[in-house]
Amino acid sequence: MDAIFLAELALNGAFTGLLYSLFAVGLVLIYKSSSVPNLAQGGLTMLGGYVVLTLSQNVGLPLWLAVPLAAVVMFGAGLGIERVALRRLAGQPIIMILMMTLGLDILIRGTTLAIWGGTTRPMGLGVSYDPLFVGPLLLSRLHLIGAGVAIVIFGLVLLFFRTRLGVRLRAISDDYTASWSIGIPVERGVGLSWGLASVSALSVAVLWGEIQGVDQSLSLLLLKGITVALLGGLDSVLGALIAGILLGILESVGSAVIDPIVGGGSRDLIVAAVLILTVMIRPHGLFGREHIERL
Hints:
This protein is an all-alpha fold and about 300 residues long. It has 11 helices and 2 strands, in the order ααααββααααααα. Helix content is about 75%, strand content about 0%.
């Protein structure tokens, strides 16, 4: 494996990893503001893709208008999920909330399959697939654009958590009771985090839907998103960014080395290995806060 090919694998892997990070930021947004692990993020991503396709291909809106309207729809969907399903579980054990998000994911996948079917549909962003050479390196235009969008969104999220509203969401995550006692509207804060996470899911759906099409497989990004979120730290936005890049590079380079030996299919194996090792060795992630309970 020559150096140029290795560099191509690493760079394209890093671009792909940034898309994984963009998915993971939705998980981090909800956990950072409510301490709830969201297993419905994959379903929300798939739903976002179908909403954009419906507005652009069925209604006939141009994509530049369909995507913002879909963002409004997804933000409302996130608010509705928190209001109808999760608010009723306030004060319940975390395992009950976890199972609720899992049930939501199954419900969303079943509903989208019933409405739109299982046929893969192209997003149609109009991005050129012509080769892009940067010196001797061959790069993917679409992954490069996706990486740029991901970096912009991450910057906005980091700025958001420095605002007064972002600080309130972090306070809610630290202590619900204390937040209530000083007048912070906890329910609205948690609902806002779900709305923002749903919009983040939409951005992933648009970019990843252009790469592989919109179908049920979009929900399978949950495994890689969870791996990135855990590796970076569930309460760290910057950690998700760095962890996504690391996982993308490891997945790209590792599969190129391992696939010829095992006959293919090592990408998911690498992701699963990273997930298991992270939980075993550093459960709070590379940049997450370590929680110590004294008994």
